[in-house]
Q: What sequence folds into this?
């Protein structure tokens, strides 16, 4: 299994403004990583540092950790910067960097078009783009991606659907329609993750997560849907819970014949085409 979304951090090394006041504002390193006892033999790191932290410094720090499972790094990048080409060039020199993430979830949708040149530069290098956004932003993402059909995109946490309302609500139905439209774009993948971190309690997870996951697998297919723990965020925030419990929940909605794709195949196809990180290949 490849766990396609893992965060590590150390506030003594880099800045994490989003962790201010949290009990998790302490080093979270490979020794603590919840491998779940489910056969994880590969992991994809996804950016965690923010504020004045240098994205290249974070990627180098992660690449230098004693973390046997690490197969790919999704680094932070400012895709709206005029210096994006230089940043991508520096990141591509780090062997396990496969692509980047420019957080969208707190960005106004009218700011999305400004990212188009950066996305085009990323696509030209063969890198992947992790799109971390909220469900109401999906139409804006769909519009943005029309200009870069060659870019490989991975949607984090099934686009954070309305966990408190469920798929049968108006917001849930809008999420379902938009996700299906996005899935029509061939070079788009999705992570089956993050729902426990968005839920208020385990009852909400049990009530709504299966339907959100089942719809996602239906529209993307197992070959473009990958499992992820979102450790330690989804294990400690919101409803929380172990990776082993999350794997059990996801397996219940994935057809048996598609499990190998969800567990490993989709992540390799998105992040390791040709057997090595995509950005390095570019």
A:
């Amino acid at each position: 299994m490849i766990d396609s979304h893992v965060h590590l951090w150390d506030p003594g090394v880099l800045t994490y403004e989003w962790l201010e006041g949290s009990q998790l504002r302490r080093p979270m390193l490979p020794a603590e990583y919840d491998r779940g006892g489910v056969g994880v033999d590969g992991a994809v790191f996804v950016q965690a540092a923010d504020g004045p932290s240098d994205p290249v410094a974070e990627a180098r720090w992660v690449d230098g950790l004693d973390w046997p499972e690490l197969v790919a790094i999704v680094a932070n990048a400012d895709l709206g910067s005029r210096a994006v080409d230089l940043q991508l060039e520096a990141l591509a020199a780090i062997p396990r960097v496969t692509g980047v993430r420019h957080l969208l979830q707190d960005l106004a949708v009218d700011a999305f078009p400004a990212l188009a040149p950066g996305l085009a530069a990323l696509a030209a290098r063969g890198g992947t783009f992790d799109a971390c956004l909220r469900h109401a932003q999906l139409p804006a993402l769909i519009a943005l991606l029309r200009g870069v059909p060659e870019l490989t995109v991975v949607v984090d946490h099934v686009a954070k659907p309305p966990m408190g309302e469920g798929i049968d609500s108006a917001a849930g139905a809008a999420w379902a329609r938009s996700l299906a439209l996005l899935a029509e774009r061939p070079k788009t993948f999705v992570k089956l993750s993050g729902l426990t971190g968005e839920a208020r309690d385990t009852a909400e997870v049990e009530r709504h997560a299966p339907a959100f996951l089942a719809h996602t697998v239906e529209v993307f297919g197992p070959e473009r849907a990958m499992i992820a723990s979102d450790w330690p965020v989804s294990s400690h925030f919101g409803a929380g819970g172990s990776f082993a419990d999350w794997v059990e929940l996801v397996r219940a909605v994935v057809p048996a014949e598609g499990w190998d794709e969800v567990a490993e195949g989709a992540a390799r196809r998105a992040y390791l085409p040709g057997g090595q990180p995509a950005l390095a290949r570019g």
